[in-house]
């Protein structure tokens, strides 16, 4: 089947920049344009509105200079206005070759905003198109509020289109300015225009107010539009525009007769770049580009992936430069853990795997997910805590940290079955905890080792809810050794490391006592 080429016009730098609070710098705009055209391979880019500001002028100039040197100038477009040629002068000075002329696509807007008759409006439009042509600037025409125009003033839309098709223009753009269309209306309105004007290039511009942007884009292509306006991450006025990533995926996966030239593998890089430059975070559940969308959380899904790919769908993360992840948390189960271990190149025996799974579930109960990067820490924590059985156990503690007061700790600790409760202050919560501990040990005539180093790490790239690994180095008169604790709370991880130390020291003392006893027995024997 022959495929229809659908042009993708990216308007992240024009409509996308109309996202509340967003303003791209000159160099950010240039970098985004370069990525859009060279890596993502969109067909055209709309980079600004004419006349907006001096900064905008400089950005457009930088872009047109680069585009001229690299053969992209005819693919760089600017939104312009019916303003007696002021926009045209601005664009000409900025080196722009293509204007997207904003006109009225509904009688309501024309009458109440411009307060003009259709005849007056059409006359001014014809004049702007002509002036532009004289300056070598080509024209696409936008019919603002077209969707409401189709609903409430279809005769005006027809009259206007009958006029427009006689003008020397390249494309007509049909916007759903307020994002009010349903998919079936989109299909019906565009099909009707397609039938009436079979030769005209129509673009469709969806807004996402009802979250129907992608669905409407799909219907618009089915109904025969030639091009789509999209934005990276769905940025744009109010609820934004149809997001480029989703639109590309639905066209590629659901329409056999349509073809687009977008490099899917560049989508994620461009999304992240725009996220960084705009400061607008991509929601974690945003299709294709959100952090969580290729992460299987339920163990049953990971298990199914191992069994004949039961949970397969066409949206493979690799298409978009991403990877499938298996979350670790209370619902993850053994299959998820095994998938992560495979990825890390680790293998555990059944018993250790069970322990790690149990620990992940416990941690998952405290914090939502544990990442793959946390896993080596958890494993080493579990494997090292096997080394000794715990005769000393910190049963409970209260740590206090309040502004203007010295930190304090109250602890209840079981030493060889006997419970000691102590309260102490310190320079920090952990220091207070250690002071209370020292008091309990003094009652048992045991000296604690000296703390000589204290190191806290979180897994690389984690956020503030990450697991903390605290490694403490201790020194006794005989030796230096380190213990490690792991928890989502930093002080708790230090306390866990300390409890391990207490048991190691106790075991060493027991071994020492046993060997002293043996020595005495041997000596006695000798004496005998
Ligand atoms: C500027 C116009 C074309 C617009 O973004 C819209 O109508 O949605």
UniProtKB/TrEMBL annotation:
Transferase keyword on record: yes
Annotated ranges, domain Pyruvate carboxyltransferase: 6-268
Keywords: Amino-acid biosynthesis, Branched-chain amino acid biosynthesis, Manganese, Transferase
Tagged with keyword Secreted: no
Superkingdom of source: Bacteria
InterPro entries reported in the protein's UniProt record: 2-IPM_HCS-like, 2-isopropylmalate_synth_dimer, AIPM/Hcit_synth_CS, Aldolase_TIM, LeuA/HCS_post-cat, LeuA_allosteric_dom_sf, PYR_CT
Family: Belongs to the alpha-IPM synthase/homocitrate synthase family.
Protein name stated in the entry: 2-isopropylmalate synthase
Lineage: Bacteria, Pseudomonadati, Bacteroidota, Sphingobacteriia, Sphingobacteriales
